[in-house]
Amino acid sequence: MDKLLVQGPCQLNGTVEISSAKNATLPILAATILFPYPVKFVGIPDLMDVGTILKLLQSMGINVTKNDHEVLIDATTLNNQHADYTLVKTMRASVLVLGPLLARFGIASVSLPGGCAIGARPVDIHLMGLEKMGAQIEIENGYIKAKCDKLKGAVVKFPFPSVGATENIMMAAVLAEGVTVIENAAMEPEIDDLADFLMAQGVKIEGAGTSHITIHGMKETELRPSGKSYRVIGDRIEAATFIIAGIMTKGDIKVTGFNPSHLEFVLETLKKMGAKIEIGKDYVHIHPSDGLKGTMVETLPFPGFPTDVQAQMMALMSVVDGNSTVTETIFENRFMHVPEMIRMGARINLKGNTAFIEGVEQLSGAPVMCTDLRASAALILCALVAHGQTEIQRVYHLDRGYEKIDEKLTNLGSKITRVKGS
Ligand code: EPZ
Fold this sequence. Notes:
Elements: E1 3-8, E2 13-17, H1 22-31, E3 38-42, H2 48-59, E4 63-67, E5 70-74, E6 82-83, H3 85-88, H4 98-105, E7 107-111, H5 124-132, E8 136-140, E9 143-147, E10 155-157, H6 163-174, E11 179-183, H7 189-200, E12 204-206, E13 212-216, E14 230-231, H8 236-248, E15 252-256, H9 264-273, E16 276-279, E17 283-287, E18 296-298, H10 310-317, E19 323-327, H11 337-343, E20 347-351, E21 354-358, E22 367-369, H12 373-385, E23 388-393, H13 396-399, H14 405-411, E24 415-419
Parallel strand pairs: 2-15, 3-14, 6-7, 10-11, 18-19, 22-23
Antiparallel strand pairs: 1-23, 1-24, 3-5, 4-5, 7-9, 8-9, 11-13, 12-13, 15-17, 16-17, 19-21, 20-21
Helix pairs in contact: 1-2, 1-7, 4-6, 5-6, 6-7, 8-10, 8-12, 10-12, 11-12
Bound molecules: ligand EPZ.
């Protein structure tokens, strides 16, 4: 397993171009299952999770051609509606193939994704929605066995605005008979991007990005290639990670290639703490900021503070003046970065789903362990400002969702070495 050696403290300066969003790319690649013709993508990020879903599509008989960041997917030849545990266990988002498989073939066998470090990650809302649309679903030997004659449009009311469930039902609705309405839908920008991709293929959708989404079902014969390549939106979570890195190191960095309106609440919070932030159309420019103050954050579904930026925000809070609190309301176990940060000198107390952080003068380098994707990012941020060397182990967690983050940070002036694992 690779590890990263980071010499701190450093100051980041320069410009970084953000890659396309992992959490938009995964559902959009799953959606290609619906279309019996080739679809071309540009700017697909080079991430482990993207590699996994492309392998999963190929395992179903789908033709995948990848040339650097360009990907051509042709699901005409799909002949196997089975998503195997060996692939699904490495990436939970594989469950997003369920809706499109059922919609197009009326049958699907998808391994239950199982939990992960941050929580049990059930899929009950996904399954409730598909049953509402007429699917018969059994759980057998760890697999979701689903079948239906033809999915029917329905009004699907979510008990919680689940991102993945919204995406699965949206995709299932594309080839269902009639109209599907999702109430209490997730409103994340990645949902909006999935809708934009589907509408580019001729699907009629209203209300994407709001809590009430209407999808008009089509016949497979009505689907038409868009004739244009599709580019996924910039990754707002990667952008937030670099923005916080610039602020923590008191540097001057420009973060480009994403839509700042996708990070409104995060940018407001950082400004409230005292960060000097200039917001452009497709960039954010961090000017050297000093004397930041602590604040309170509670993670919520979009447009609230995103849970995927919680760990990175806690890294910043651990080195500003004064006290802060972070309340995690989305996942039940998303404080795995805390013990590792404490080993670097952070002062954090946990009480239920709230972390109490007392800002310290400085952190010190130490050997630390990655536990999940965003916790890993938080450890890198701490290492950038810690005095001495930090050895970050199990960086495969990081490689799942950040494209060449060590290279990007090196180009901004940090001292990071990747040590190839055995
Ligand atoms: C997506 O996960 C993202 N992953 C996550 O990003 C992100 O943290 C999450 O949305 C919330 O924004 C991808 O898009 C690939 P949810 P997802 O369904 O769809 C509960 C990262 O770091 N729930 O909105 O799994 C669930 O247990 C990852 O990039 C049910 O109870 O999120 C959780 O507590 C981590 N039943 C909450 O809802 C269900 O059927 C949010 O889950 C589904 C979800």
